[in-house]
Amino acid sequence: MTTLDTRRAPDAAPRRPAGVRTLWLLAALLVLAAVMVASLAYGSRDVPWADVQAAIGGADGTLGEAAAAKRIPRTLLAVVIGAALALSGAVMQGVTRNPLADPGILGVNMGASLAVVTGVAFFGLTSPTSYIWVAIVGAAASALFVYTVGTLGRGGATPLKLALAGAATSAAFASLVSAVVLPRNDIAGSFRLWQIGGVGGASYERIGQVLPFLAAGFLLCLLSARALNSLALGDELAAGLGERVALVRAVAALGAVLLCGAATAVAGPIAFVGLVVPHTCRLLVGVDHRWLLPLSMLLGAVLLTAADVVGRVVARPSEIDVGIVTALIGAPFFIYIVRRQKVRAL
Q1: Structural domain of residue 181, as residue ranges?
Q2: If pLDDT is split at 50, 70 and 90, which confidence band does 338 have?
Q3: Mean pLDDT, the chain, whole residue set
Q4: Do the domain assignments include residue 27?
Q5: Per residue in 167-195, pLDDT tens?
Q6: For a 10 Å CB count at each end of the chain, is N or C smaller?
Q7: Is residue 233 a part of any domain in this protein?
Q8: Rounded-to-integer distance, Cα 177 and Cα 49, Å
Q9: Total domain count for the chain?
Q10: CATH of the domain at 217
Q11: How far apart are alpha carbons 82 and 78 in whole angstroms?
Q12: What would the 3-class secondary structure string for the chain be?
């Protein structure tokens, strides 16, 4: 376990008054509402505002209303998946005290992907609910494997060791996914699109299937907020404050695994949302997880929904999957975080 440097780093987020934090939460809500409206209005064809309003009210009589109505489940799925990935990343960073933690970077998403592909190819899985359960198991196994590898050697689980172990594991799992899928022409086409990551196949049925798993993950993560603040002080001090450190880590990690596993099962392995959003939120509201986690959910939903809109608009009449857009945003940010000084621990 890395030691906590009690000196404030030069780029550490300053403490924010409660009023400022509340304003940021409200601003994030307004931005999310605006992005959701943009998601209904813009795509392969633009929809007038009047038709968007009518579609929200349930109308689908005209071509514009039907187009906007069809985009509603896609928008809702982008919101919940973005919130899940961002919250999962923020909790992983808090649990491991690793500023590089992210479901994609640590190989958790690819572990879930490999589990789903293996289940479909070799065990004949067909039920969407079974996809989710298998993805969660794969995500948990991958997270445990990466953390175990990252703790080997001197210094324990340092951020860079975990990131390297996660990157190697992710690459290995991606190769295994390709090895499983390529010989199977019956599943190769659909899984090739799913591997990129996107929300294009959204439906109310799919949202309903994944929502209970996401709700459980949201609840576990948000209930862990105060305990994660204690963990940031170090394990010994957290135990002295009455926290059961092992239990706190297990519960918070379970919530994060539920979120990224369920999100991957539905939308594919979308990377970097869980890295970019929590770091941005720390600049806005500081490191208190009671504020950081809710804001991460909101801005994660904003980022993924906006990325989906951008992907639809820049390649009309086709579209760029949201996983590609988030990678274009997140990869430079990841390089910046790695190169930043004093990135040993949160």
Answers
A1: 75-339
A2: low
A3: 86
A4: no
A5: 899 889 989 988 888 887 777 766 776 77
A6: N
A7: yes
A8: 43
A9: 1
A10: 1.10.3470.10
A11: 6
A12: CCCCCCCCCCCCCCCCCHHHHHHHHHHHHHHHHHHHHHHHHCCCCCCCHHHHHHHHCCCCCCHHHHHHHHHHHHHHHHHHHHHHHHHHHHHHHHHHCCCCCCCCCCCHHHHHHHHHHHHHHHHCCCCHHHHHHHHHHHHHHHHHHHHHHHCCCCCCCCHHHHHHHHHHHHHHHHHHHHHHHCCCHHHHHHHHHHHHCCCCCCCHHHHHHHHHHHHHHHHHHHHCHHHHHHHCCCHHHHHHCCCCHHHHHHHHHHHHHHHHHHHHHHHCCCCCHHHHHHHHHHHHHCCCHHHHHHHHHHHHHHHHHHHHHHHHHCCCCCCCCHHHHHHHHHHHHHHHHHHCCCCCCC
Closest CA to 122 of 171, 176, 169: 176
In a domain, 97, yes or no: yes
Looking up tokens 């906590």 gives 4
Non-local (6+) Cβ contacts of 143 within 8 A are 106, 107, 108, 111, 253, 256, 257
Q: Report the predicted TM-score, pTM, of the whole model to 2 decimal places.
A: 0.88
- Tell me which residue of 253, 281, 269 sits closest to 96, measured CA to CA: 253
Predicted pLDDT of residue 140: 93
CB 162 within 8 Å of CB 100: yes
Any idea how long the chain is? 346
Phi-psi region of 342 (alpha: psi -120 to 50; beta: other; left: phi over 0): left
Residue 222: other Cβ atoms inside 10 A: 16
